Amino acid sequence: MVGFASADSFRPDTSRLRLLPIRFERLGADRFLVGNMVGDMAEMTANELERLCALDLTPGDGLYERAFEKLFIGSADQRAPQQLLALRLRSRLSFLRAATPLHLFVVTLRCEHSCPYCQVSRQSKDRVRYDMDRATASRALDIALSAPAPMIKIEFQGGEPLLNFELIRWIVVTAEERAMSLGKQLQFVITTNLALLDDEVLEFCAEHDVLLSTSLDGPRDLHNKNRPRRGQNSYELAVAGIGRIRERLGPDRVGALMTTTEASLDRVEEIVDEYLAQGLDGIFLRPLSPYGHAIKTKQFHKYDAREWLEFWKRGLRYILEINKSGRRFPEFYSALILRRMLSDEPIGYVDLRSPAGIGLGALVYNYDGTVFASDEARMLAEMGDRSFELGNVREHGYRDLVLSDTLVSAVADSLTQTAPQCSTCVFEPNCGADPVYHHATQGDLLGIKPLSEFCERQKGVITHLFELLEHSPEDAAVLREWAS
Q: In which region does residue 193 sit, left (phi positive, over 0), alpha (psi from -120 to 50) or beta (all else)?
């Protein structure tokens, strides 16, 4: 008589389990964060972690199922888990197949603002020798269009780039002509304080589909304190400009960035309210960077990573409540991290990549034709440190620049997948390499991680988001929507 095999005969053979690569970090007295090499994470007690490492697992005990789901373990007889990890890792690194999509043109160093935290060491607006000329722009354009990426994003930076608007106009029109024969797609962004925005600029942006990005640090008094200019009307001009762009080009054609100063720390709710009042679609709670006037005026040292994390957590709590009331309003840095944590989709943000985004993610063409590996590298050069200078548009092509010893060495030395302390860090798959920051703050491309404020911020942000995803269902629903 034919019968059925007993249920026990279908139970997995736990003696054939294999532990896959995992990392862990203590969260509390009896709480550990355990992760795999593609960023999946789970919370475990000390006993559970010990049992996982000893492969003391039984089907049906919960831990066995969680360990399989998170790719912490696999069967010694099967290669599928390793192949799945490899496939997911390849997907997360697929940004390398479209190298250098972002090209920043510093069309002038001149600016009519005098912000004490300015990271680019601007020049006064009458010093036209700090403007990029057309010949330099033409060579930079050739380099940009020879990059492998099919979509080339050209971002105009300064100083205040609208002080050299005629060159912006020439670059956009010329780029469109040259890109057509190369089959490249283009996107243009002008990063501007909007003080010089006029109808001519708006009409040109409408005609050529140019986006605008500006700075908005918060309410009038805070913004004008952070961003002084003659007339003390930076806020009024920025807000008026945002309104004009929204009306003429559409609500999604302008974005804003805020910079956190010491004066911002107690006012995050007011800052968020200002963004809501201006109809902006989210906010990036951004810390100061250690470059340019931010160092000269000691602004960078007026708060530390712990204080910024408290500011960010308070702001995130306020923003989550706004979202729960029905208005979608993401905190953009959280959204970027969440995409790393919850998907294998590559992201374009160059500071959250390894290999580092310098050169491979972006190139910067300074007004005088010098090429740098990132905007932060250009800022560092303005302070006298030219460690990340790759060459000059008059002497070098794209391959010369990205295969230069300077760039290859910096990228190789900062790989988090192999770097000491990063390669064993549970946060590594959801973090990134920032060799320019660590060189600037510690004189070391890789960085001394226990003393790195970059690491402290990243660990704090990822841990907090993980806790919300695990223990706060209503917040988790909002966060998962931001990541989608």
A: alpha
What is the reported pLDDT for 1? 56
CA-to-CA dists, residue 79 to 12, 20, 92, 224, 291, angstroms: 16, 11, 20, 60, 48
Look up residue 313 and give its DSSP letter.
Answer: H
Task: Report the C-alpha gap between 321 and 335 in whole angstroms.
Answer: 16
Q: Where are the alpha helices (DSSP H) in 293-423?
A: 293-296, 305-324, 332-342, 375-382, 398-402, 405-413
User: pTM for the full model?
Assistant: 0.91
Residue type, 479: L
- 10, 21, 8, 15: which is closest to 76 by C-alpha? 15
How far is 362 from 355, CA to CA, in rounded Å? Answer: 13
Closest-CA residue to 320 (of 422, 472, 444) = 472
| Edge-to-edge strand list for the sheet holding 41-44 | 22-28, 31-36, 41-44
pLDDT at residue 293, rounded to an integer:
66
Judging by beta carbons within 10 Å of its beta carbon (0-12, 13-18, 19+), is residue 272 exposed, middle or buried?
buried
At 350 the pLDDT is 83
> For residue 105, which phi and psi values (nearest 5 degrees)?
-105, 115
Q: Are 109 and 122 in contact (CB under 8 A)?
A: yes
Stretches where the chain sits below pLDDT 50 are none
Length of the chain: 484
Number of neighbouring beta carbons within 10 Å of residue 296: 14
Q: What is the pLDDT of residues 341-396, one digit of tens each?
A: 999 998 878 888 899 989 999 999 999 999 999 988 988 888 889 999 999 999 99
At 353, which helix (H) or strand (E)? none
Residue 243 makes CB contacts below 8 A (sequence gap 6+) with 278
Return the H-helix or E-strand segment holding 169: helix 165-182
Chain mean position to CA 351? 5
Cis peptide before 355 (omega within 30 of 0): yes
Give the three-class secondary structure for 43. Answer: strand
DSSP string covering 433-462, please?
--HHHHHHHHS-SS--GGG-HHHHHHHHHH
Helix (H, G, I), strand (E, B) or coil at 413: helix
Amino acid of residue 205: C
Could you say which DSSP state residue 482 is in? H
